[in-house]
Design brief:
This protein is an alpha+beta fold. The protein has one domain (2-135, 251-446): Beta-lactamase, CATH 3.40.710. Helices cover 28% and strands 18% of the residues. Strands 2, 3, 4, 5, 6, 7, 15, 16, 17 and 18 form a ten-stranded mixed sheet that branches. Helix 1 packs antiparallel against helix 13 and helix 2 (134-148) runs parallel beside helix 5.
């Protein structure tokens, strides 16, 4: 049995409007332990702040009811009692004011099915495997910036930037087709059975045929966002992680947002799955959602240890070296909130401008099948039913959710490590959709009309 973890503490670099970083323990019994953070990083007297940056404050300052917001604690604790999640961090801000940042339960409760005698507590500094939230907080961010700068258009054909993509009937596929999951690319295949690095993954994608006629259907596809990352790299001559660090995360001082976290940070990281049993079953069992002709035993790289700081997604980890457009990003709730506020501000944060408000509006408005470019719209199963029609967000397979509502200037970030509780009897993982929906509805209930 092999256990990997990263521990320690490094102060995050995000710039907020106030001061200290104490943490307090409340209620402290086992799974129900809650860590509340008042917390944002200290800033030096030289730092200049503006009204569009996040600041600590009270619910009252944001015109919200504090008692109603406090009921979120019961919602999360109930999910832990029901064994949906071992732990979580919930971050809520309205009108640039942080009204809640709370850690619950454990960052790691199990190691390969064995409950730890001393589980590792969750903190507000814990870094999470974001899974498919990578699609919108990494890849889509880069594409929005390139569109805003006039480097690309969503109407450009993919083959303009990746010429070999044109093989097998894909010559007409555009960037918009990829962003809206309407390209015709298949949703998923285990590239790592044959591809051993990112170059071979690109060759694999270039050789793929279309599964359906472009634009006639919407099938959520990891391959679409892997391809978008390769487009970005072709244009910028930088690897995806390097470009994002230079152009987005670095300027916003998001120091805890990164790829390949186990290798690149000393911060605590939430544990996820016990190896990759879910993907093994995806290949082995044709009734589990996918038909894969290969035998999973032809792959000799299956991880047999609890994942901490290694991306859960097999295509990202095994074949894409941990850096991919569909999955691979790690971050904290507070870092994501800086990027979230940037979007709620229309593309700016402090004196940093990432993209134009017009481009942001386009990407977060209905395009095809009532969904945005990269962004999901009106998904009640995790957004609840109280949000405005301007709301956009996304989820990740590891139990992560981000929700942004420009009309209310609200962001709701719910990060969990649900996979560390293990699989259900049917091989699936518990859904955090209801948890997210309940938290979201409670946030809107707390807003004073």
């Amino acid at each position: 049995m092999k256990l990997r973890m990263a521990t320690g503490a490094i102060l995050a670099g995000a710039v907020f409007l106030s001061g200290c970083q104490p943490t307090d323990q409340e209620g402290g019994e086992s799974q129900s332990s809650v860590t509340e953070s008042s917390v944002m990083e200290s800033q030096s007297s030289e730092e200049q702040v503006t009204d569009n940056q996040l600041k600590e404050g009270s619910a009252e300052e944001a015109n919200m009811d504090e008692e109603t917001l406090a009921e979120i604690d019961q919602i999360v604790e109930a999910a832990m009692e029901e064994k949906i999640i071992p732990g979580a961090v919930v971050f809520i801000a309205k009108d640039n004011t942080i009204v809640k940042e709370t850690a619950y339960g454990y960052a790691q409760k199990f190691d390969m099915g064995e409950e730890l005698s001393e589980p590792i507590e969750m903190t507000t500094d814990t870094i999470f495997d974001l899974a498919s939230v990578t699609k919108v907080m990494a890849t889509t961010q880069g594409i929005m910036k390139l569109v805003s700068e006039g480097e690309i258009s969503v109407d450009d054909q993919v083959a303009m930037y990746v010429p070999d993509f044109s093989k097998n009937g894909k010559e007409e596929v555009t960037i918009a087709d990829l962003l809206t999951h309407t390209s015709g690319l298949t949703p998923w295949e285990p590239t790592y059975l044959t591809a051993k690095n990112r170059e071979e993954v690109l060759d694999y994608i270039n050789d793929l045929p279309l599964e359906y006629e472009t634009g006639t259907d919407r099938k959520y596809s990891d391959f679409s966002f892997m391809t978008l990352a390769f487009i970005l790299e072709s244009i910028t001559d930088k690897r995806l992680d390097e470009y994002l660090q230079d152009e987005i995360y670095g300027p916003l001082q998001m120091e805890d947002t990164l790829f390949n976290a186990a290798e690149n940070t000393e911060q605590p990281i939430a544990a996820t799955s016990w190896g990759n049993p879910y993907e093994y079953k995806m290949i082995e069992d044709d009734e589990f959602g996918y038909t894969v002709p290969e035998d999973p035993e032809m792959f000799d790289g299956w991880r047999e240890y609890t994942l901490v700081g290694e991306i859960n997604d097999g295509n990202a980890f095994y074949a894409n070296e941990g850096i991919a457009g569909h999955a691979g990003l790690f971050s904290t709730a507070k870092d994501l909130a800086v990027l979230g506020q940037t979007m709620l501000n229309g593309g700016t944060y402090g004196d940093v401008e990432l993209y134009s408000q017009e481009v942001l509006q386009t990407f977060t408005s209905p395009q095809r099948f009532d969904q945005g470019y990269g962004w999901e719209l009106n998904k009640e199963w995790y957004m609840g039913d109280q949000h405005s029609d301007q709301t956009f967000g996304h989820t990740g397979f590891t139990g992560t959710q981000v929700i942004f509502d420009p009309e209310y200037n609200v962001q709701i970030i719910i990060l969990t490590n649900k996979q560390n509780n293990g699989q259900k009897e049917d091989g699936s993982y518990a859904s955090t959709g209801q948890l997210s929906q309940d938290i979201s509805n409670k946030v809107y209930e707390s807003i004073k009309k």
